Amino acid sequence: MKKIRLFCLSVMTAVSAMNVWAGGLLTNTNQSIEFLRNPARDAAIGIDGVYSNPAGVVFLGEGIHLSLNLQNAHQTRTVETGFPLFVNNVNSNGQALHKFEGNADVPILPSLQVAYNKGKWSYQFNFAITGGGGKCEFPYGLGSFEQVVGSLTTVAPQINTLYQALGAAGIPGMSDHAMGSKYGFDAYMRGRQYYYGFTLGAAYKLTENLSVYGGLRMLYGSANYYGYVKNINIEHINAGQSQMVNASQHFTELSATLNKYAGMMEQMGNAEAAQQLSGAAMQTTTLGVATQDIELNCDQTGWGVAPIIGIDYKTGKFNFAAKYEFKTRMRLKNKSANSLSAESISMLHKFADGGSVAEDSPALLTVGAQYEILPSLRVMAGWHHYFDQDTKQWTKEMLDDSNEYLFGAEWDINKIVTVSAGGQRTKYGMKDAVMNDISFNVSSYSFGFGVGVNVTEKVKINAAYFQTLYDDYNKTEKIAEGVSVTNCFTRTNRVIGLGVNFTL
User: Fold this and answer.
1) Which residues contact 455 (CB under 8 A, 6 or more apart)?
2) Domain total of the chain
3) What is the pTM (predicted TM-score) of this model?
4) Which CATH number fits the domain that encloses residue 345?
5) Rounded distance, CA 161 to CA 176, Å?
6) For residues 221 and 208, is the Cβ–Cβ distance under 8 A?
């Protein structure tokens, strides 16, 4: 029964707040409203290029270019878990398939891009939430929580055999007791993660057609994980009357009774009976400890620095660009206030107060092209490759590298109004070994559209909508002979944004 407690704790501590944006496992690429309007910005020339195409920013006119962006995002994570023992939940209505949904909201997500162009140089600064980006809350916990609690009822035959043996041994009232199949509990989980990115760099125009970029990005990570499994109840039958009782209290009291009679047997010189009663007491003590309330509350912070390089080449109506973000080594330090019941568990050591956790931001290669069909009409395409396997926290056995394929178009209706639209296909390389209801990503299709309005020659307003449609990922896992757990993973995501660009 010790495994029950260990697994409950490991479930909560493995929690990872999900990425609520477009991009890789820990990388947000939507750092501007222009991206929401059309995600294929890897070879576009604009102030948003401070992130997407920094080498190309040098081809903007001289002066100060500034972009302020505000985004609002809502995402859900849904896992449908099927497990035979779920029918025993007092609140399940006899259903073996339970649905667990988490909601993540970011009311306002700001970003800022600034460039100062002078001669052949462009000096640039970017601030954005480059990873994470929200709080995900599961008000009723997860299926993996309930699976463990529900499995507790499998000890009922063992406990009932014990009751009968105690009754036969003459211990008063025991033969009238029994453990039923019903269970209940309270569970909750919340994860929050933000990676604040600050980038400084410069682009240089080697020729009228070719430019290069070099910069440094600092990431500051902040996360909090809070969860609990409390009030685990089991069905107890006394003289034919069924009632739900606190499991930890019940097993602890039963253990005390067994130890009491073990002492009496020892005093009477019946060493064999005393030993049997003591062994039974140890088993029920283990059950009492396993079903204690468990609470995790861990804050994590850390930072890392990595270089970024880029190149942009213009030829005729074409523009080509590429960027490489080096892996950012991140070690998040823990500041924890876990329950005493959690602190003694070895699986929690990586979340112990003062410990650290690896959360590297993977290297990213982007390649893009843009073609001017007409002076007022442009089409573009891009490719993103995330080197997820090259991080400390992921391995080749867990996933393959992620890839994104992007396309879009932009049309200047007139000198004032520009409309754009585009889409992307995100292919995660998640494998069954890493897919669970605690932390998962599923491949998706995204599309965005929006409008840019030149209010004046120096001020432009951008507005956009971005929607992601996620694939379903189904996984069936055999956990015992004739017993399997099925999970269906999916998500929803939408983002709206409003921004303003200035030229000074």
Assistant:
1) 461
2) 1
3) 0.84
4) 2.40.160.60
5) 12
6) no
